[in-house]
Amino acid sequence: MRTNWLHPFFVATYVSAGIISSTTRPLILADTNRDGIVNGKDIAEKYTWTNERGAIFLPNVGDKHRRCAAFDLNGLPLSNQELSSCNDAASHLLLSPELAAPARTAPLHDISEEAIGNIYTLPESTLGSVRVFWKQPGSLSGEDSPWRLVDPQFMFNATSLRAGIELAIDARELVSDLSAWNGTLSLEFRVTDGNMMTYDAVAMKQAPVLFHHHLQRVQMVISGKGNETSSPAQQKFVRGLEDALMNVTETPALHLLNGTDEIWAQDFMEPGFASMPGPEGLISLRVLVRSAQSTRVAGRQVFESFRGDRVRGHQLPLGSGFGHEEIDSGGNIEIIPPYVSKNGTSYTHGRVIMGKHFDKHPAKSMTSLIEAQIYQSPLILEAGWLAVRHVDEFVQFLPYQNHLGWTIAIADTQAPLASLKKAQDSGHGSTLVTSYPNLRQPEGFSFSDSTFSFYNSRLENLTIDALLSDDDFLQMQKYVQKYTDHNLRLLLEEVPLTHNDVLRIPALFKNVTYPWPSNLDGLPPRLHRVTPGQSQLIAFLPAAINGIVIGSDYVAAKPWGPIVDDQDIFEEAVRDVYGQAGMKVHFVDNFMSHHVNGGEVHCGTNTLRDTRVKWWS
After folding, report:
1. Can you give the pLDDT at residue 22?
2. Contact, 392 vs 602, CB < 8 A?
3. Alpha carbon distance 279, 96 (integer Å)
4. Which of 103, 111, 523, 613 could form a disulfide with 167 if both were Cys (CB 3.0 to 4.6 A apart)?
5. How many separate domains does the chain show?
6. Contacts (Cβ under 8 Å, ≥6 apart) of 354
7. One domain for residues 314 and 363
8. Which CATH number does the domain housing residue 317 bear?
């Protein structure tokens, strides 16, 4: 970027003044010092963008006036690409000026009447991605918008140059491919007067879209609404969820989706945000990234239900993420809270974790988007040992009183086995493993329904003695432990924590290895067949680790474990381990709504967290 166009004299003059006075050379300024105001204090170090200094602009891609449609004039649903192409920055109009970054030129004197100016961005790859607007002087309140889109070839006349030019900058889209552009640009100001051509510039950067971690405040919990006729289990789950949320310290809003039959609210989108400084504090935009599952119809909810003022739905590009493969669900994307790695790399905004399935990796369209934001480059764990294969089935991150302010929680099979053995030794071996009532024929449910894909009738009469004598089951717990230990090693090689810092959440798993059929419609299978020599597992009973972190409160699946001395021993163990993190547990019954379908509370919900986050230094 240009660094030699401004004389030191002007730097001293304008910084001390704090205002923009007229100059004899071109001077363009943006909010380089990040106080939300453009003035003379922004002159110093304006040519290079760093984490500490440099102007920021947003992708202005919400739908402020709710003008974007989901259906065409014939009532037919728009394609994924048509649906996502509409936003406030898609046209030549500045529909949300409050989300555009300010910039301005200093008034120029000692120029002729023939002087002209051009304002444009470099590199050239930004021309179709970034918009520059000029606020035309003389516009009155109530008239059409005074903001005019500036083409690089547009020529500002001498009158405008003498008055100074007020500008607004925003982006049409997210930065999604580092090989094309990394989000940093130079806003150039060129003045031609006769044979003399002079320049100035200011460095700017598009705000990255960052995914939320569990230390950020929950504003809304999302789940599917369901109905009493077709989904009584979901209705029961929602009632339990409502009760749990009413008892947390800071009760978030609950939004129930009624535009889809999807019960897996976690999996069709990943919420994030982008932010920049403003004159009265942070200015932010919520960005909901649709999962890389092109045929997952529920993913359209990010546009049909959520897109609006300061809320953007983002559709990943074609080329990967075709079909509805579970590896590309939102449950396979989690975020480590902020830390500095053991090799000294700072992840000030946390780091994404994703699960691979042995030799199969998540869709490139999603990993490229995450990598293009720079700050949360993904760490890949191994999730191929699971049937659904999501990282949220075995690991999470909890607020904790230590030097990081958080710790790792990971599924542990040994503790619940020890609890069962203790119960057996104390004379409770004939106790049923699950306390779920009337499991053989629960009211309102039929196990002939194919949606109950992982229900096992063996559980109806299974005792502690029988389970602990099942060698195959015990071997599966060792298999699980091998992979959870492997993933924990990967995390502890990265994060400055020790084994003693880790919380181990009781969880048992069962083998559901199955030769999943290939699709006959040309789509890749949702669940893939087992890798030779491996197994595929899901939670044996509702798993607490798959829950919602809401500050010091935790909403978890009720485990329905064995009752010993009038106490569910698994429920007691779960309360104890989360209590070590100072968290209060609120249990929700999701046995029939989600557990028998292969997921738990976290899978069946999503959260919108506070977007007022300062990501720069």
Report:
1. 75
2. yes
3. 16
4. 103
5. 2
6. 332, 333, 362, 367, 378, 379, 380, 381, 391
7. yes
8. 3.75.10.10
Task: Indicate the angle between helix axes 414-423 and 471-494, nearest 10 degrees.
Answer: 140
Contact 299, 291 (CB under 8 A): yes
Cα gap 601→599, rounded to integer Å: 7
**Residues 266, 248: Cα–Cα separation, whole Å:** 20
pLDDT at 195: 95
Mean pLDDT of the chain: 92
Q: How far apart are CA 11 and CA 585, in angstroms?
A: 57
What pLDDT sits at residue 447?
A: 56
Q: CA 466: distance to chain centroid?
A: 43
pLDDT attached to residue 7? 34
Who's near 84: CB < 8 A, 6+ residues apart?
Answer: 290, 303, 313, 314, 315
What is the rounded CA–CA span in Å between residue 300 and residue 296? 8
Q: How far apart are CA 200 and CA 177, in angstroms?
A: 28
Residue 293 sits in the same domain as residue 336 = yes
Q: Is 544 left (phi over 0), alpha (psi -120 to 50) or beta?
A: alpha
The answer on 405 and 280 residing in a single domain is: yes
Cis, peptide link before residue 123, omega less than 30° from 0: yes
Q: Which residues of the chain have pLDDT under 70?
A: 1-19, 21, 139-143, 228-230, 441-452, 520, 522, 525
HSE, side-chain direction, 13 A CA sphere, residue 415: 16
Structural domain span for residue 265:
210-222+238-609
The per-residue DSSP string of 58-108 comes to: -B----TT----SB-TTSPBPPHHHHHH-STTSSSS-S-GGGSEEEEEPPB
Instruction: Indicate whether 80 belongs to any domain.
Output: no
**How big is the chain by its Cα radius of gyration, in Å?**
28
Sign of the Cα torsion 318, 207, 310, 173 reads: negative
CATH number for the domain harbouring residue 150:
2.60.40
Residue 186, beta-bridge partner list? 122, 203
Q: d(Cα 491, Cα 352) in Å, to the nearest integer?
A: 12
> pTM for the full model?
0.93
